[in-house]
């Protein structure tokens, strides 16, 4: 049972890691893009992180596929053992114990066996073994009978081998008793390597070769992506040249609703020279210098805007975005070069 829990925990950890990486990348996509716009050198780390994440996802899926095939094979072997006749199953377990290095294995079986199917010795301890073919839960009275037989025979330990499973109450009951249980999952795990050694002697060699090929492929992939990550930022044009290369485009006039008051028209006072400001806090680009004006575009942190003018009260700036949309933004949303402060300041 402990081994089965560890296997399930490992599978859940792999799947959970893949899902967590995908969710992490999805929710941070906005911040990653904003940081890339403001700092092109971040592109190197983004590419390196992406290549490593892809490698981990590929490795995780390979492990899950391999584990799934292994579990299916073990279930198949357990099901085949369950279909045997009682005497055949006892002989099957006898052969299994001998293959695992047990000694003095002797089969009893038949009527009047007093709950004993096999006697065996392991590490100097004498065992009484009971074999049960079940698909689901093994009734707990069999375990109690086995414990009574162990005490009556005055042996060291008892072993129950079954193709089914036992309840958690049974696992709790045997904690402080010299009883071992091999359920269907553990039985399949013990049979699988022995069966493969007879039917697929080169199985482990093929698995190791496949693992080496996967690691070599992932290593080559990451080595190729490393120089790409280092030179990629040099192919990004400067942010300032992107802003200056934008051409002005006409903007649609806002349509006033029948119940709304018309927005006041503000005239922009042109700056002496063209300048660039960076959005420091996300906000809205509006059609007029008013909080009630129509929203033309959402601004994100790191966006660069070309300054065109300033409102009469000095609180709103007329700007042009990288998409050539012209509108008004409140000055508290922008990071402006100190040298431009004098041009943006108005006397009362």
Short description:
With 348 residues, this protein is an alpha+beta fold.
Question: What is the topology?
Answer:
Layout: H1 2-27, H2 29-38, H3 42-82, H4 86-99, E1 103-107, E2 118-122, E3 125-132, H5 140-153, E4 157-162, H6 168-173, E5 179-182, H7 184-199, H8 203-231, H9 239-244, E6 269-279, E7 283-286, E8 295-299, E9 304-310, E10 316-320, E11 326-330, E12 334-335, H10 341-344
Parallel strand pairs: 3-4, 4-5
Antiparallel strand pairs: 1-2, 2-3, 6-9, 6-12, 7-8, 9-10, 10-11
Measured as a percent range, the helix fraction is 40-55%
| Average pLDDT level | 79
Q: Count of helical segments?
A: 10
Query: How many strands, which pairing sense, and closed or not: the largest β-sheet?
Result: 5 strands, mixed
* N to C succession of SSEs: HHHHEEEHEHEHHHEEEEEEEH
Task: Summarize the structure in words.
The protein has 348 residues and is of the alpha+beta class. The protein folds into three domains: 118 residues; 104 residues, Trna Endonuclease, Chain: A, domain 1 (3-Layer(aba) Sandwich); 102 residues, Roll (SH3 type barrels). It contains ten helices and twelve strands. It has a five-stranded mixed β-sheet with strand order 1-2-3-4-5, with helices on both faces. It has a five-stranded antiparallel β-sheet with strand order 11-10-9-6-12. A two-stranded antiparallel sheet has the order 7-8. α1 runs antiparallel to α3. The N terminus is likely disordered.
């Amino acid at each position: 049972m402990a081994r089965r829990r560890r296997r399930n925990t490992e599978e859940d950890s792999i799947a959970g890691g893949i899902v967590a990486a995908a969710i992490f990348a999805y929710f941070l996509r906005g911040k990653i893009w904003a940081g890339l716009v403001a700092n092109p050198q971040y592109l190197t780390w983004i590419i390196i992180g992406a290549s490593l994440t892809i490698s981990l996802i590929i490795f995780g899926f390979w492990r899950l596929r391999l584990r799934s095939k292994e579990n299916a094979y073990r279930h198949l072997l357990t099901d085949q053992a369950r279909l045997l006749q009682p005497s055949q199953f006892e002989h099957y377990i006898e052969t299994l114990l001998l293959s695992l290095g047990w000694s003095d294995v002797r089969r009893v079986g038949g009527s009047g066996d007093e709950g004993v199917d096999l006697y065996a010795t392991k590490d100097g301890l004498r065992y009484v073994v009971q074999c049960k073919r079940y698909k689901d839960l093994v009734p707990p009275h069999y375990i109690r009978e086995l414990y009574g037989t162990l005490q009556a025979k005055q042996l060291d330990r008892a072993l129950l081998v079954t193709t089914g499973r036992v309840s958690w109450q049974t696992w709790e009951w045997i904690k402080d008793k010299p009883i071992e249980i091999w359920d269907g999952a553990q039985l399949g795990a013990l049979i699988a390597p022995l069966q493969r050694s007879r039917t697929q002697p080169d199985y482990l060699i093929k698995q190791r070769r496949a693992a080496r090929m996967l690691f070599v492929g992932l290593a080559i992939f990451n080595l190729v992506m490393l120089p790409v990550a280092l030179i990629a930022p040099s192919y990004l044009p400067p942010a300032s040249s992107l802003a200056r290369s934008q051409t002005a485009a006409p903007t649609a006039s806002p349509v006033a609703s029948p119940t709304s008051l018309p927005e006041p028209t503000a005239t922009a006072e042109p700056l002496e020279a063209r300048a660039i400001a960076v959005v420091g806090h996300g906000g809205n680009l509006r059609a007029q210098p008013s909080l009630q004006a129509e929203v033309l575009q959402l601004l994100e942190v790191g966006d660069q805007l070309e300054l065109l003018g300033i409102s009469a009260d000095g609180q709103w700036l007329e700007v042009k975005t990288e998409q050539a949309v012209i509108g008004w933004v409140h000055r508290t949303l922008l990071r402006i070069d100190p040298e431009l402060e004098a041009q943006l300041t108005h006397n009362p």
